[in-house]
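Please check these two lines:
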Amino acid sequence: MGGVGLPTMDLMRSEPMQLARIIIPMESAHRTVSYLGDLGLFQFKDLNSGKSPFQRTFATQIKRCGEMARKLRFFRDQMMKAGRLASTRSAYGSEISLDELEVKLGELESELIEMNANTEKLQRAYNELLEYKLVLQKAGDFFNHAQNSATAHQREFEEHRLVEGSMDSPLLLEQEMTTDISKQVKLGFVSGLVPRDKSMAFERILFRTTRGNVFLKQNVVEEPVMDPVQGEKVEKNVFIIFYSGERAKNKVLKICDAFGANRYPFTDNIGKRYQIITEVSGKISELKTTIEVGTLHWSSVVQAIANQFEQWNNLVKKEKSICHTLNTLSFDVTKKCLVAEGWHPVFATTQIQKALQRATVDSNSQVGAIFEVLHAKESPPTYFRTNKFTSAFQEIVDAYGVAKYQEANPGLYTIVTFPFLFAVMFGDWGHGICLFLATLFLILREKKYSSQKLGDIMEMAFGGRYVIIMMSIFSIYTGLIYNEFFSVPFELFGRSAYDCRDSSCRDATTIGMIKVRGTYPFGVDPIWHGTRSELPFLNSLKMKMSILLGVAQMNLGIILSYFNAKFFRNDLNIWYQFIPQMIFLNSLFGYLSLLIIVKWCTGSQADLYHVMIYMFLSPTDDLGENQLFWGQKYLQILLLLLALVAVPWMLIPKPLLLKKQHEERHQGQAYAPLHSLDENIESDFSDKPHGEHEEFEFSEVLVHQLIHTIEFVLGSVSNTASYLRLWALSLAHSELSSVFYEKVLLLAWGFNNLVILIIGIIVFIFATVGVLLVMETLSAFLHALRLHWVEFQNKFYEGDGYKFSPFSFASISEEDDN
């Protein structure tokens, strides 16, 4: 389980840690920190916590790295724009120094910015020419139509005049037709494009502003047009506005600008208009070719950046993290060396020393780094070496609280107990197989999915894939014990031990059955399923089983508190916490567990509720038919007295002995080590420097012990009752599964209709997946989590430590840029 060159990992207690000081010459400081980052087993302490980030030594280098990181983010945006992916093979390419990289990044950034600016200008000119061409064509069509209409009108008027004579013609019309052309009013016009969604408001404002003294003609452009200003495709209309006078012209121009209308020059001369269209088409063709060539060159530059991007990005991130770490180091009095302090596992001492020697040689330093171990006053960080299988279980524990240094780790037991308690609530080997196959798919494709960004829910499921597969394996096991496959029983391990007396006992209770064979070898006899006594039988079985499992796990928690006390050499906790707690819990609920086992073994009809209640109310009365074994009454009296004695045993001696130890220590009569104190007081004393003494408040210690005693006594009852959730959720899961099978699948089958059967199968599948495999899985997971956090861990686990966070390039490379 351990890595190459590492000892086998131990999940029971965290790794032994050391506080070390490293004195590093300035010329090898950078390389030393870099090699320690490659090793990833040294957690630096910040020796400059009183300084702001701008007052630290390497603030300039961090700013420099930040500027390079900004350029790399710009390059990443360009790569995303081009649809290029960073090549992962580039990390093993040719080495490049940071100074060379800084120059290269600056040159590439300038080149890309210039290319983007030129491309933007060319694209804007290209879009403007496209719009201009549209205006020339659409407005030209309007002029051609108007000219043809005027010519036809003139011809019609002349024909009418020749036929009827001038006496019958309207005088005004004749006057209009004979007016001198030089005396006619000359109209100006403005043409361009306006966004279609603004065209109605544009027309309305023009009419109101000029009081109707303009003529507006609009023509719809069928395809969206690339707007030169916005750079986006917009649906537009070509317009031409006729006006009279300079004031009207100014108003029209201002309104066009206000509505974002792009204006273009236009001529009513047909020959000149066709000439302009030809010139514009030629320019469009030239610009298109120029833009394509520029885009190809831009793509080649971006591709060259993509090939080296990962290497450059890793180099900048490493350099920035090194500078941040160097800022936590302090100068010695000579200002020629840097002093580092930090935590590391004991097993890594040799590796760290080798890294320091290699850094000295590679940097050609005349003086080597000095490594020395310090005696620490503060508590060391907690470090568990985990792999991809155990890490998820350890995260479950760490979510409650990180273990105190070398405290017994619940994560070791959680690997088995967590999926088992889940399976007790989820027991169905059909559902377990579905869950197993879904998780197995994630495990088989973990290399692919680990390098991808998944959604939040999928990310959680993938991260806990080994927890879920253990849960599914245990669910198959408990499902075989419950003999349920989608709520259907099977005779997998032989035939049932019972048969009906006759054909009329099909719906009878067990009274109508006779035992004809040996006991069913494994799990629940399938004959129980479907009978009227199924629910009372399974209720009794699962309720008693839940109590047995709960008492066993709580005893495990108390036993672990003994190992904690023994490890920390805290005799007070052994004699005045572990022993009375074991006596109290097992005098009551351990005895209940014994009664359950004896009742199962003997087949007695004794009422255990009555036994436990009258054990407190009338301990001296005879048990009568509820007696399970000889001497039970006297055993109950003894256990009750032991439970009553255990309460003051937990409450009174410990505070008095703590007070006595405190007085002896300060009178110089005894020198007890700090770890012999109560753990809560130990943490207070350990923070005090030599020469200072914490004032001992006996009343506070007594109240603290009183709270712990009451919490344990009441918690023993409530925690045991809390384990009944195993029975409740198991029953709910079984009944839901039975309802879906009988009321959906069997009901659809009974109609003898293919369509109804298919609909029933679909509903059954969706109900099974949605309710039983998703919601019930989540529900059972949360209840198992609560049983571990509250009922199990509160017996021994303090969880007030802090994680070991070494300086490591591996963890830096996993983080995304902000």
Summary: The chain is about 60% helix and 10% strand.
